[in-house]
Amino acid sequence: xxxxxxxxxxxxxxxxxxxxxxxxxxxxxxxxxxxxxxxxxxxxxxxxxxxxxxxxxxxxxxxxxxxxxxxxxxxxxxxxxxxxxxxxxxxxxxxxxxxxxxxxxxxxxxxxxxxxxxxxxxxxxxxxxxxxxxxxxxxxxxxxxxxxxxxxxxxxxxxxxxxxxxxxxxxxxxxxxxxxxxxxxxxxxxxxxxxxxxxxxxxxxxxxxxxxxxxxxxxxxxxxxxxxxxxxxxxxxxxxxxxxxxxxxxxxxxxxxxxxxxxxxxxxxxxxxxxxxxxxxxxxxxxxxxxxxxxxxxxxxxxxxxxxxxxxxxxxxxxxxxxxxxxxxxxxxxxxxxxxxxxxxxxxxxxxxxxxxxxxxxxxxxxxxxxxxxxxxxxxxxxxxxxxxx
Length: 390
What we know:
2 domains, alpha/beta, F-box domain-containing protein
């Protein structure tokens, strides 16, 4: 492929003033196969605004270091197996120094943070994917005017035996360093892994926080409480797929909803995704009635002004049998779900709570139409996707 594209990059691209986007899926293999003239031609381009290098290797880093374009958006995703090994190459941000004044969006994957990243004052959105728990101040220093932070997953969960202890230790270090050296003045939003946000220990307000549980890990109520104390959000979205874990810690969930940190929260969205199939991953599917009773006990009496409750049930429709997977959930679960009334749920979350301004309930069941009902003042409901702002 590199040989075929060489004439374009050597002869045509330098003469194309509107050539502003370059995306190479397997960039490590591409530049490994490229001769020096091709790599130099790509690096010498000055018109690029958007650069996306996936599966990057050492050869990719050499091109990044020589890059002459002043980028607005950069995505650098390292090859998980054959990524750069030299310590100075593990963080690609210093390689983008030519775009220090122009970059606005940065996406990193399988990389590390470092104190030598430079100072990118115009970056507004940072997306992190499959990285270890970072040193938060590295990003505070590199992107002082950041507004939106995304973090999809944390590699520590695959590498550490005692993940909780590691997360607590790194959180303590991040909190202490920000207390000493400073943090962001505030972020507009965070969206992603609850573990990553907890371990980063942000020492600044974050207006809108969206956290999801991580692969094979449950939603920890104590981490939610710590995050609320750190970020003091105006709106919190909690998306949980591991409802079994929440039911096991129902007492902690109730305690969270009665904590001082939770009582300051103006707006809450719970997005529960309930799989009722019995198989390799779920030996005991969560009891839908127990989930609803927990919501009524914990959330209904809370003083949160706005509550949005979305519950999605999967595995209700019989599917072709697969090894280790039962075709249908228990009959009593199906009976309870079939009898669920979104209006009744909304009434129980709204009625009798003088501080409740608005409620929205969304019920989704396999094979049935989406049902959404509201109570109170709909204009109070928050439904903003800050990814679309950039």
